[in-house]
Write a structure and sequence with these properties.
It is a single chain. A five-stranded parallel β-sheet has the order 3-2-1-4-5, sandwiched between helices. Helix 1 crosses helix 6 and helix 6 packs across helix 7. It has seven helices and five strands, in the order βαβαβααβαβαα. The protein starts with 8 loop residues before the first strand and ends in a 12-residue tail after the last helix. Helix 1 links the parallel strand 1 and strand 2. The protein has a single domain, classed as Rossmann fold (3-Layer(aba) Sandwich). By secondary structure, it is an alpha/beta fold.
Length: about 230
């Protein structure tokens, strides 16, 4: 029989970006102690993302945090985020799956988060995937995340019962901005740029999606950009 722990705990996969940060704050608002998990996977903006993650954790008052180093993706290549010989596109939306897609990244992240959740007796894993207004990554689809949840519960102890929550999956970027402002999420601490670690480039796909969200929400992004 499944058992319950007295403390509500959620493992939050947090990149330092706006989406995963809002997801974590939403879990905090729902009464969960936050176990923050961050991955250094040799991505272009690894140092900046880690800096943002640590600052966000301080503001959020996390229960526990894990910073996990993975060099697997660097050896794998096949993505502009982890292979510096591949340019990050700046010319608008690509057809099909973008070159910034990192093969099965969310599947690997969720598997590791599941191990942490089982060890910590956490009831939930939170991930900030966005299906409706994203870059077209296949591992951000609701159906896929639900399938991962089923696989995780089949592969863990009987008393483990993990729900993967994806509170932003059907939101537009403008709605994410609005919800973040409503929860006083420190958006100035978040980072979305695929290319730069000082000033955001303003022209990569992630920057354009972010800037468009702020524009549609009729508010100003608090981070600095080279151009937009």
């Amino acid at each position: 029989m499944k058992t319950k722990t007295s403390i509500k705990k959620a493992v939050c996969v947090m990149s330092g970006g706006m989406d995963s940060t809002l997801s974590a704050y939403m879990m905090k608002q729902s009464g969960y102690e936050i176990i923050a998990v961050h991955f250094n996977y040799e991505q272009r903006t690894q140092a900046k993302e880690l800096e943002c993650f640590n600052l966000i954790c301080e503001d959020l008052g996390v229960y526990e945090k894990y910073i996990l180093d993975l060099d697997f993706f660097k050896h794998l290549g096949a993505s502009a985020l982890t292979d510096k010989s591949i340019d990050v596109p700046t010319g608008g939306a690509e057809e099909g799956v973008p070159i910034t897609y990192v093969p099965f990244r969310n599947g690997i992240f969720l598997s590791m988060a599941a191990a942490i959740a089982e060890k910590e007796s956490a009831q939930k894993i939170s991930i900030g995937v966005v299906e409706e207004d994203s870059s077209g990554y296949p591992d951000c689809r609701e159906e896929y995340i639900t399938s991962m949840q089923n696989a995780i519960n089949l592969g863990t102890k009987d008393e483990t019962n993990i729900t993967i929550t994806m509170p932003l999956v059907h939101l537009k970027k403008s709605q994410i901005v609005q919800k973040s402002l409503g929860l006083a999420v420190p958006l100035k601490l978040t980072w979305s740029c695929y290319k730069n670690e000082d000033k955001a480039c303003g022209v990569c796909d992630s920057c354009r999606l972010r800037l468009n969200g702020f524009a549609q929400a009729r508010t100003t992004d608090p981070i600095e950009y080279e151009s937009y």
